[in-house]
Amino acid sequence: MHWYLAGWTVDAEIIERFWNIEQVDFSIGGLFSRKAIGVNGQWPIPGIDATLGDTLLIHVTNKLDEPTSLHSHGLYQNGTNYYDGAVMATECGIPPNGTFTYRLQLRQIGSYWIHSHFKSQTADGLRTWLVIKDPQEVYKYDEEIVVTLEDWFREPAEVLLKQMDSPDPHIRFKPIVPYGIIGGECANRKRIRFEPGKTYRLRLINIGASFEFHFSMEGHELRVIEVDGVMVKERLTHGVTLGAGQRASVLVTALNSTQYNYAFHADMFTDLMQMPRYNPLNFTGTVEYSSKAPTRHVRNSKWKTTVHDLDLEPLSNEPPLEPNRFITLDAYSGVFDDQTFRHSFNNVTYMAPQVPSLLSAMTTGDNAQLSETYGRQTNAYVLRHMEVVQLTINNHDYYSHPFHLHGHVFQVIEMGSIRDNERMMKESMDVPVKRDTVVVRGGHYAIVRFRADNPGVWLFHCHIDFHIQLGLQMVFVEAPEVMQTWTDMPEMYRENCIAQGIKTTGNAFGGIGIEGGVADLNPSPYPDQFESYDPPEGWKLISYILQGNSDDVDSIVSAKLLESA
After folding, report:
1. Cα–Cα distance measured from residue 424 to residue 540, given in angstroms and rounded to the nearest whole number
2. Over the stretch 338-389, which tens digit does the pLDDT of each residue have?
3. Which of 117, 337, 443, 514, by CA, is between 20 and 30 Å from 77?
4. Listing from the earlier edge strand, what are the strands of the sheet with 230-237?
5. Is the pTM of this model over 0.85?
6. Nearest-CA neighbor of 202 among 167, 237, 168?
7. Within 13 A of 54's CA, how many CA atoms are on the CB side?
């Protein structure tokens, strides 16, 4: 099979994987053991190498006692929205003992990953990397190494989620200290092997559930060439910061000597938990030139620096899009009237509909153009085909959120502070960087733009796995009139819905028209209960809860104040 792209031929392959998704035992370097969600009795799950134009078939058999799914993070799924894997947004999920085949046409290059989109199965291990190589690579290098950055918890995600949704801050802020792992190994024991003089492409992929990583290599410079599957103009840096779901490729030229080994750092930032004693969690591995060489430490503060999104430029040279649709999303968290702690966009915490939103879009005729069809709790916005959307995201929380859009990359136009007393703002280059995941700091905003050129139902959500479960997501329903012309949906798709008693037609409640249902009675926030951005008071509260050292906390508060001065 051949693909013809831009005047050249690609010899495409069909890559098949047969995955039995099941619980397996996993021990992290002898530190502790627990169950993980693996594949074919194995964890970590082997990654997948492919080439532009290939077709990837993943035949899934669900051996869990609950539904599951696979989402290929970063793939556009143009025309195949039903393979996006977002349970109750684009599919019903694969029931226990059920099967499903994801057929992925690989029409993009870059670094991606595959993970579950049901409950918090990603946090429990259902995740791996996907690399799609370019036959006509722009940048030259000798070898490439995939470096997966992951957080790993002692407790199953279900246990942690019960703690995080507690209305009692003494429970909610109880320390949860994750471990940093790379490719299934404790990050402190990981060795990245270099040969003198070679240039390596390191594909850094944060496939963790929640936390942000800062990656750097002592004695070596990094040259960023890709972010989130988008090739960029080479940018020199000493470190790269990746939120959950983000990816970056960097070129590193090895030194010309085997006299010393060097340290690399994969430091995990845990502002999600607001734990002064554990932020950051420092993990240090080895850049190995020789198994017999000592490690030389190059201590220099510049290794802690990072490249800013708005300093990157894509090779595509696409100028800023001109928007004709403007949407603002305010992200808050707080205690809701069901006595749980939740997250929300515009005061709406996401709750799954009773019919997948994709099926509602395909089966409700003209009513598919109305946001009410998808239920209040999905927070759906219906987009016209090809309109250009400017999305302003205001993060009122005191911790960062990595926001991810399915089915698209967006231009990152502007970032800054939302507080009246802080006039900090940074605009993009003349050619704005494109990503599918952007980190918005606490008390800050981001403005992004994308063209609605990919009909489908696309989630927009924080990629902290626990925040998804606590409601920080919404959906864009893009060109439903186009979706209604699709005729090649796989038969097993509807069979999996029927097996679980899920309706396959109608509005969010399986009805006709836009009448409401019980889902419209779902929780609402208490007035004035949002935990909006207030670093000093937030840190003092958490210090009190954790009974930390007041001197440590005061120094952290002072640092935060200096940052915002």
Report:
1. 25
2. 778 899 999 999 999 999 999 999 999 999 999 999 999 999 999 999 999 9
3. 514
4. 185-186, 179-182, 143-152, 199-206, 247-253, 222-227, 230-237
5. yes
6. 237
7. 19
